[in-house]
Amino acid sequence: MESQLKELIDRGKGSYERRDYVAALTDFRQVLVAQPNFADIRHLAGLCLTFLGQPEAALDEFDRALTVNDQYVEAHINRALVLNELGRFDEARSAFERAGYYEYAISGRFPAAITARLANKHSEVGDLYQEAGAPMEAAAQYRRALELRPRFHDIRNKLAQSLLQLGELESAIEELKTALEGNSHYVPARLNLGLSLFRSGRREEAAREWRKCREEEPGNPQVRAYLAMLDRETAPRA
């Protein structure tokens, strides 16, 4: 599943760079079916819709990206540009002001847009280490990314996955709980929290997390698979 999503993301980004926005949007929407709270892909989908002349749909994608990460400066800026085009000038001004606040007021050593890019680059390097079967090195890169942008919950989820591979279950649980404090609807993190709890022998807690996932995404096949696994584990033996 992860490799398929990565292939879709890479292909979509390639299409976007070639300005084939229809093809890019098609791939991004497939990714969002599996990971609806992926803020970066929401933002890119919004940009595609902007260039395709669908401003209202673009606004919806930017809004959903900001629901996941309200400090997403680029999403605020592009949302403001679309609002301005639609003649919603007061809303556009507010969006620009919010972008400016996050750009300068809380950016720390570097401007927020730069820290976001740096964080994503560290994350990409972490992904390469993860693909190479080096979870310790991957975790180090994800931690560097989170030092720059601690509210990038998708990266925190990746860190937890590396920690799971390393057998550091309690650390993984803490990271996933932090991600869910930032966004309680982030299903991939809750799925992994359930898995971490399950591997720790905390079956009832795992079941609670996976049932919450089922409430959020009833059709998610991974949720069904995990709950079925739990049922097999707890079923009385003949």
Task: Give a verbal description of the structure.
The chain has 238 residues and is mainly α. The protein folds into two domains: 2-105, Tetratricopeptide repeat domain (Serine Threonine Protein Phosphatase 5, Tetratricopeptide repeat, Alpha Horseshoe); 112-234, Tetratricopeptide repeat domain (Serine Threonine Protein Phosphatase 5, Tetratricopeptide repeat, Alpha Horseshoe), CATH 1.25.40. The protein is built from 13 helices and no strands. Helix 3 (39-51) runs antiparallel to helix 4 (55-68), helix 9 packs antiparallel against helix 10 (169-182) and helix 10 packs antiparallel against helix 11 (187-199). The chain is globular, with a radius of gyration of 19 Å.
Helix content: over 70%
Low-confidence stretches: none
Question: Outline, from the CA principal axes?
Answer: globular
Q: Class of the largest domain in CATH?
A: Mainly Alpha
Q: What's the main sheet like? A: none
Could you spell the SSE succession in H and E letters? HHHHHHHHHHHHH
**How large is the count of helical segments?**
13
Beta-strand content estimate = under 5%
What name is given to the CATH topology of the largest domain?
A: Serine Threonine Protein Phosphatase 5, Tetratricopeptide repeat
